[in-house]
Specification:
The chain folds into three domains: about 45 residues, no CATH class; about 140 residues, no CATH class; about 100 residues. A hairpin with a 2-residue loop joins strand 2 and strand 3. The model has no long low-confidence stretch (mean pLDDT about 90). The protein is an alpha+beta fold and about 290 residues long. Helix 5 packs antiparallel against helix 6 and helix 6 crosses helix 9. The protein has a four-stranded mixed β-sheet. Strands 1-3-2 form a three-stranded antiparallel β-sheet. Helices cover about 35% and strands about 20% of the residues.
Length: about 290
């Protein structure tokens, strides 16, 4: 469609108004929904698809739920279905590939993200609290904070307004434990398992100092009172340079009497909680000491 400025996405009526023939639309466009097309020249990623959907949605609509989580870079799970949130109305848009949720959103519940209206980090966390199991919710909250999309004060204000909203009890339960310093979803999951046990709450990204007060390492999770550190070994630790650095870190930590527990993806809840408990007991922890 040389010379006709349609852009990456367009509607049938928009293209026809600009003089594009039916044959040209069928040849170029990838149909997202009735009368809505994405140009075959662009990568059909979620942001492009949302930009297309925005052309046929009401002005007050915002992308939310799992769609917002992906747009906020807090989730890697990209669905073919796009989720939109809008205020109540007599007739809601009903189109294949689009799921509509009704919410009475305040101005602060919506942000602009790359030209799209998207539910805020706080609203996204609250909405998904009704759908996600608690471990996944903690992972989501950590990732929203780590990506700079969620601030504790904003979340606290949103939860104050959330009386009787589905999922609010779970959201309030885990909101105080969110931390953007988690280096990976697996670290967040490990922390959830520990928080959900009878063990004390671990510190996150714990600096390890030697006898002269110099920082020689840091631990993913740890208990400075009992000098127990927990490390999650992801795939990056198989790199030869990283492996060498790890040897230095662990030997320095051991030299200063730190007990280091190393875990990988194969270790589940029972292994992590049980071994951490045994290490803490070995170092003098008792349930009464928590």
């Amino acid at each position: 469609m040389d010379g006709i400025p349609l852009g990456p996405s367009y509607t049938w009526s928009e293209a026809r108004r600009l003089g594009v023939t039916r044959r040209q639309i069928h040849a170029d466009g990838v149909q997202l929904s009735r009368g809505l097309y994405l140009s075959s020249a662009v990568e059909p990623d979620l942001a492009e698809r949302c930009s297309a959907w925005a052309k046929v949605l009401p002005a007050d609509a915002a992308f939310g739920f799992r769609t917002a989580a992906v747009l906020h870079e807090a989730s890697d799970s990209e669905s073919t279905t796009v989720h939109a949130v809008m205020r109540p109305r007599r007739v809601l848009p009903q189109r294949p590939g689009l799921t509509v949720h009704v919410r009475r959103l305040h101005d602060e519940d919506v942000v602009q993200h790359h030209g799209l209206r998207v539910t805020s980090g706080a609203q996204t966390f609250l909405d998904l609290a009704a759908l996600l199991p608690a471990p996944d919710l903690l992972v989501l909250g950590d990732r929203l904070m780590g990506a700079g999309r969620l601030h504790p004060d904003d979340l606290a204000r949103r939860l104050v307004r959330a009386d009787r909203v589905r999922g609010v009890v779970r959201a309030r339960r885990w909101a105080p434990h969110l931390d953007g310093r988690a280096a990976s979803p697996r670290e967040s999951l490990m922390r959830y398992w520990l928080l959900d046990s009878d063990l004390p709450e671990p510190a996150l990204q714990l600096p390890i100092v030697d006898r002269w007060g110099r920082q020689v390492a840091h631990a993913d999770l740890g208990y400075p009172r009992w000098k127990v550190a927990l490390e999650y070994e992801g795939r990056q630790h198989a790199d030869s340079e990283q492996f060498t650095r790890d040897i230095d870190r662990y030997s320095l930590m051991a030299a200063d009497d730190w007990l280091v527990l190393r875990f990988a993806a194969r270790h589940g809840r029972s292994a992590i909680v049980d071994r951490t408990r045994r290490a803490l007991v070995h170092r003098g922890w008792t349930p009464e000491a928590s």
